Amino acid sequence: MNRKLLGFLVAGALATASLAGAPAYAAPGSAHEHGHADAAQMLKLNNGQKWASDEPLRDSMAKIRNAVDARLATHDNKQSGQYEALGREIDAQLANIVQNCKLEPAADEVLHAILAEMMHGNDVLKGKNPQVARTEGMKRVVHSLELYAEYFQHPGFEAPRAAH
Asked: Which secondary-structure segment (H or E) carries 4?
């Protein structure tokens, strides 16, 4: 992953930390919606095809998916310690992607939007915004995995089915 993406992720993490009191989802037409529209505009296919991925990206995304799948299987939304453990695993895998993933610049831009969604969801999942249920963070993480599956080549990868 290039320095541009690293800078983007750091800026996203700082912005997320500064917005800890803001709602996880922006209401249509609100001032907070602008960032979501910008991210959505970054999501595009590579001339109608999914973007190539590399081994570090596939490995980390599979580990995140497996950790989320295991958490969803418990159906116990009351255990904040489990959310925090999942959040730490997601953080570790995001760090691995930043350190080791090498994509072409156009693919990097698409990945930026997906990882930003995952980071925002992970912050909610970890309880950084106590006004928003951790399950909402889980939904955003699952959504980011769905986006990854939609925009990147990763044989056999499927996002988790539900975030309840």
From this structure: helix 3-18
| SS3 of residue 130 by DSSP | coil
How far apart, in Å, do the first and last CA atoms of the chain sit? Answer: 32
pLDDT digits (tens, 9 = 90+) for 93-131: 999 999 998 999 999 999 999 999 999 999 999 999 989
Please say whether the beta carbons of 138 and 89 come within 8 A: no
> How far apart, in whole angstroms, are the C-alpha atoms of residue 89 and residue 95?
10
Residue 17 to residues 52, 56, 142, 145, Cα–Cα distance (Å): 31, 27, 21, 22
What is the distance between the alpha carbons of residues 161 and 75, in angstroms, rounded to a whole number?
13
> Are the beta carbons of 9 and 98 closer than 8 angstroms?
yes
Report the predicted TM-score, pTM, of the whole model to 2 decimal places.
0.76
Can you tell me the distance from the alpha carbon of 33 to that of 35, in angstroms, rounded to the nearest whole number?
6
> H-helix or E-strand containing 72?
helix 55-74
Longest Cα–Cα distance in the chain: 44
